[in-house]
Amino acid sequence: MDRLSSFFSAKGARAAYHILTNSAYTDVKALLPFHIINVSPMYIRISGLRGYFCWFDQEFVRSSWIITDQMLGHNNMSPNRLEVVLMLLMLMVYNASGAFVGINIGTNVSDLPSASDIVSILKAKKIQHVRLVDSNHEMLVALANTGIEVMVGVPNNELLRVGQSRPTAADWINKNVAAYIPATNITYIAVGDEILTTVPNAALVLVPALQFLQSALLAANLNTQVKLSSPHSMDMISKAFPPSAATFNSTWSSIMLQYLGFLKRTGSSFMLNAQPYYGYVKGQGVFPLEYALFRSLNPNSQIADPNTNLFYTNMFDAMVDATYNSMKAMNFTDIPVMVTASGWPWHSARKEPAADVDNALAYNTNLIRHVLNNSGTPSQPNNQVSTYLFELFSEDLRSGSVSGESWGIMFTNASAVYSLTFEDVATASTDSPALHGMFCVANSSAPHSALKQSLDWACGPGSANCSAIQPGQPCYKPDDIVAVASYAFNDYYHRTQASGGTCNFNSTATISSTDPRSTGVNGSGMASGPISIALTEVKKVMMAAIEGLQWCRGALVPMKNDGTGSSCASGVDELLQRSWQEGAAAQRLGVIVNINIFPLSKIARDKEDGQFGDLVLRLVEGGISIL
């Protein structure tokens, strides 16, 4: 267990992948309550898992599920072996908290603070993810033992050297990555920055550089902890709107095919520098400023993709979806997007009127809230987009596209340019009405035609996540418009209340203390009623099971190999019962729990929960998503 426990400091998905591909855990894999068809850095494909999936619990993880006795109920497991299986399941859902917001730290600053002072600023701001534009050794030392996740960079001026020599790439990894791990939590390497559009003479060595560096990571046994990618600008996309028709510039087709193939093979992300500020300026009035700043649009100015009828309430989402669709046009549909730079300047030497403090504060505040809300994008609602703000300090010595503009959120004397508090915004973004026992529900006395109109608005211009209530999806209930509308209304209210969203919908909705999830919205033909459980609660019961199994080891009446032994089993049962009794959140979720002595946990309303075929667990930054 010591080996397994050590993985709790890493991402759960990566740890699970490590265990599943490590020969030392062959016996553990044989005990898993599902059959592993294949494993890659990006996917774990499994069969035989029974579960009911429903997206009620956004305040926890965006997906909820029932785990039945097939998942945890193996009567012939000894405590030791079952403990390892439970720990593996824990690792697979561990840290599934969704997207994060980090920040860029550049060094082209005339009066750059010391590395230790910079780390003090990061700690004060509660910033847990940073992107270094290079591999500054002083910063890597200062970041040691802080727990902050670090992305280091191969600067553009080093790319040619690294991309033309395998030994040089290995030397770069040894000096700039391996030498600082594990004290410094390096998780990503950004190879170059906007190479194809800013340094085209280095384009041909981009993929070789990635391959050489990947070989060096493999040799250092760091390939599961550290991922490689290369940031690209929106200039790579020929026409970004409508997003559904976006494609990469054909000039780079050959290189992009190789690059995307590399990302897929290694389970890495597509890195995108998404700057709506430039989209707004270059648009010359085509898009309203509110659209770029995440502000509410006039009802007469709603922006929709004519090919998909998806509404876009902000330019950031449109840029990300344009990237997804550009990859799709090249037959790559399973590579997540990570935004490596996004921000707004508060000053411009070119006298651009949109570059001011008020707009910079509005954009960055709304961006943080949007990302931490885990809402995904209109075309990818279940794919959260982790984002690095641009930037901590304004790089007054930098040349290139951002020269002449001040983007930093801090002055070099550690004072703030404007009041941007990561922790407060994060709290506001997750401070849902559900957490306070308040819900937005449909008015049962409202005419069905009015409810239908409000439902269409919530799922369209309102950008509520209505994927689970669409035909064929598990929460679809065509004969109960009140229940389905309540789902959409509450989702909208949950997402927007912190930024001024209301629960009215032309008088078809009202605030209630009754959770709409108790209305029984579920899959057609499935058991009706409150049958969802958040992964948070699954982890809680797993931890209780592990605690009980550890207690069994020291019990006077040890558990027998066949799983019997009344004293031990009763002790485990007692711990599990206590776990659920103390878990008030489980009751708020409307979970009906039946805990048997063995199997340890049977969570279901009745025997009619769904039977699914092969499922794919997609390993993503921060945990897993279920396809």
TrEMBL record:
Where, by residue number, does the polypeptide cross the bilayer? none
Question: Any signal peptide, and if so, which residues?
Answer: none
Q: Give the matching Gene3D superfamilies.
A: 1.20.58.1040, Glycosidases (3.20.20.80)
Supply the EC number(s). 3.2.1.39
One annotated GO molecular function: glucan endo-1,3-beta-D-glucosidase activity
GO process terms (BP): carbohydrate metabolic process; defense response
Catalytic activity line of the entry? Hydrolysis of (1->3)-beta-D-glucosidic linkages in (1->3)-beta-D-glucans
Using the UniProt record, name the top-level EC class of this enzyme in a single word. hydrolase
X8 domain residues: 438-522
**Keywords, sorted A to Z:** Disulfide bond, Glycosidase, Hydrolase, Plant defense, Signal
Which Pfam family, any one, appears in the UniProt record? X8
Show the SMART domains listed in the entry. Answer: X8
Task: Give the family this protein belongs to, as stated in its UniProt record.
Answer: Belongs to the glycosyl hydrolase 17 family.
- The name under which this protein is listed is glucan endo-1,3-beta-D-glucosidase
